[in-house]
Amino acid sequence: MNLATAQRALDEGEARYGPLGVNLEAFARFLAEHGRAARTAAFADLALAFACGTGSAQAHAAIERHVFSQLPAALARLDRGRGRVDDVLQQLREQYFVGQKPGVLGYLGKGPLAGWFRTVATRMTLGLDRSGPSGHDTERELEALSTTIDVERLQLRKEHGPLFRRAFAAAFESLSSRERAVLRLHLVEGQSIDQIAAVYEIHRATAARWVQRVRDVLLERTEDRFARDSKTSPEELDSLMRSLVSAIDLSIERLLREG
Questions:
Q1: Taking the alpha carbons of 59, 62, 63, 64 in that order, is the dihedral positive or negative?
Q2: Global pTM?
């Protein structure tokens, strides 16, 4: 990447974000390392990312104003009141702006820097659940999910309500951390297939398969547990499960249509 192109990219960055304190020759080498990706890149954001990665105080101030200020609102719904947003932001700062090769230098400029960080922060927020949710967290997630698909209304007989809810809770708690995260994004947060794909950086077809699989696993395990613990007739069990299938499928169809 020649100096003229690097200068143009730097000019775009400083026009948008203010002085960045970038060494032009070093920036040109950085763009050259990006190769073909840099030819159609978001040059202003690449300039900001490079400046942050090389320790520019002006760039750090700019990224706080233009990017990090947007993240708390974007993460609040995923966090669901656990108070983890500040921890995620601190993790981001440590992983992407500190060290000999800060993570921000991995940004390729293929989309807005704000969107790139939003995806990283979302994955990081979900990743906190992989350490194992507390019982209180599990109960809150289950309550949100149960409300979303209106489990209580689906009960055919009042006496089966607590037993069915326990079966549903056991099925939910048996899901893997990723399955739980996908289910929360899909049913509770109302994320489209494309949005889920963006969070995990996968193709939308893969995201659709994940959603379908977690739906199937949840239904199968709920039915198995309820059938084992209850004394309902096969006909009654079949009717109850058809109601649950219908409720979840309607949500999946809506998201697939929106995606």
A1: positive
A2: 0.54
